[in-house]
Structure formats: structure tokens, C-alpha cells
Design brief:
Strand order of the largest sheet: 3-11-10-5-6-7
Strand content: over 45%
Structural class: mainly beta
Order of helices and strands: EEEEEEEEEEEEEEEEEEEH
Number of helices: 1
Distance between the termini: 115 Å
Oligomer: single chain
């Protein structure tokens, strides 16, 4: 069990801190609405109340504060400056919800809760929640390497690290990667992923990219078999064949003439 000492002018709260017990998912760049409602037996008295929206774990962070009837930003964590909104007019109705906008990747897996204290009631802590942040991946693309007989699936720009699965329609089964996936953690905090499978004996392959936070699945498919030659290829083949036959006929004709002249002589 951890303890958090929250300090404001003339206010010191020693609070027990435990892990969060529910979760909420959001998308990077979009607002996250954290719903929180809690009831008390006594009426709400703004001028006698201290309310903190804060982190549960180290390093302890203060997202927002409502101190004695007004919002207080002096001790707000720098990373949440100008990103949080509460509903002061709805606090008497016990609406302690918070909006984080825009949501950032650095907010992923933070444990947050509401701390409420009044002069007539002991400290209450509620709405313990873990925030999970997702960023959508780009549509995956499959590249076929016929020389090495492999297919490679590539995607990037997403968060967190995805799960990649391969399958083949003609076999109806999942495929094991040719080698471990290549995962790159980019400077912007997103992931780039590449996975490769063998295509020996396959007609087609499908690559699924699953984001465990947003529960989104992206799929790409690719034909593996060599496509029939197009009309340009057919023309080239016919032309080469005609030239080869013509050259052969000319060579045979010249040879016969030379042989005939040699015999006559």
C-alpha cells in the first residue's frame, strides 16, 4: 500500500493509494470523457470542499483540482495544462466527470481517481480508473518476394504494439510467421511492424493487424500464384517465337544451299 501526500496552502492530505479497478479506452488526439458519479448523504458545500482528480501511482500527478469553491491550477501537472475540463455547476449533483482533450499517448495506462474531502466528512476516494490510449494503424500492405518465396506484411503509425496473424484461404488455416516480427518504436511513440511468412504451396495469403486497445482489426489479402501473362507479354512471346523460327528457317536454308553447292562442286 502506497501513501500520497497532497499539498496545497494550509492543506495536507495523507491518502492511501491502491491500484485502479476499472478501465476506459480512448484514441490519441480525441477527447476522453471519464464518467464519474458518486453520492453522499449530506449536501454538497462548495466552499468547504476539496476535490482532486489525480493519479494513483508514482509518479503522482494532479490532473485537476477544485479547492473551496473554485478550480485551482497552480499545482496541476504540467502535462495536463489546458487539457482538462470538469463540470463545476454539476458538482452539487455529484457529477465528478472529467474530460481530457486531446488525449495523448503519454496518458496510456495512467491510474486516476477522485479524492473528495469536506469539513464535515472524512476523505473519500472513488472512480479508480485506468486509462488506455490507442492510435489507429495504417492499412497493412503485403509484398510478395517470389525469389525467396515469402510474403511480408507492413503497417505503421499505431499504438499499442499490435497482434499480427497470417492465414491462407486455400488452406483455411493460420500460418506461422517465417521469422519473428520486426517491431520498431518510432520517435512519435507509435509502432511500425513487419511480419513475414513462407508462401510455398499457397495460392493466397491474408494478414490481420489487431489493436488490443481499440479492438480494431485491419486485413490485407494478396494472391500468391503467378498471374497469367497479359496481352503485352503474349505479343512479346509471339514476336520472339516468330523471330526464332525465322532465324532457324534462314539458317537451315543457307546451310542446305551451302551443302548443295559443295556437293555439286
Amino acid at each position: 500500500m502506497l501513501f500520497l501526500l497532497v499539498c496545497f496552502p494550509n492543506v495536507f492530505l495523507l491518502l492511501k493509494v491502491s491500484s485502479a479497478n476499472i478501465s476506459i479506452n480512448g484514441t490519441r488526439g480525441e477527447p476522453l470523457f471519464w464518467p464519474c458519479y458518486h453520492t453522499f448523504s449530506e449536501p454538497f458545500q462548495p466552499n468547504n470542499s476539496l476535490i482532486y482528480w489525480q493519479g494513483c501511482r508514482k509518479p503522482h500527478i494532479l490532473l485537476h483540482a477544485y479547492v473551496y469553491g473554485k478550480e485551482e491550477f497552480q499545482h496541476q501537472n504540467r502535462s495536463f495544462k489546458n487539457r482538462t475540463t470538469i463540470f463545476p455547476d454539476q458538482l452539487p449533483s455529484r457529477n465528478f466527470s472529467l474530460i481530457i482533450e486531446p488525449l495523448m499517448l503519454q496518458d496510456d495506462q495512467i491510474d486516476i481517481e477522485v479524492i473528495f474531502r469536506s469539513q464535515i466528512k472524512s476523505t473519500n476516494r472513488f472512480c479508480q480508473t485506468t486509462v488506455y490510449v490507442a492510435a489507429p494503424f495504417q492499412e497493412p500492405k503485403i509484398e510478395i518476394n517470389r525469389k525467396e518465396k515469402t510474403a511480408t506484411c507492413n503497417t505503421k503509425g499505431g499504438f499499442p504494439e499490435p497482434e499480427i496473424k497470417w492465414s491462407s484461404g486455400d488452406r483455411g488455416t493460420n500460418l506461422k510467421p517465417h521469422k519473428p516480427s520486426t517491431v520498431i518504436f518510432e520517435e512519435d511513440g507509435t509502432f511500425s511492424v513487419s511480419s513475414t511468412v513462407s508462401i510455398i504451396g499457397l495460392q493466397n495469403v491474408a494478414c490481420e493487424v489487431y489493436n488490443p486497445t481499440s479492438n480494431q482489426t485491419l486485413t490485407a489479402t494478396k494472391e500468391v500464384s503467378v498471374p497469367p501473362p497479359g496481352w503485352k507479354t503474349i505479343i512479346i512471346i509471339v514476336a520472339v517465337t516468330v523471330v526464332a523460327v525465322t532465324v532457324t528457317v534462314v539458317v537451315v536454308y543457307i546451310y542446305k544451299n551451302l551443302h548443295h553447292n559443295t556437293t555439286s562442286a
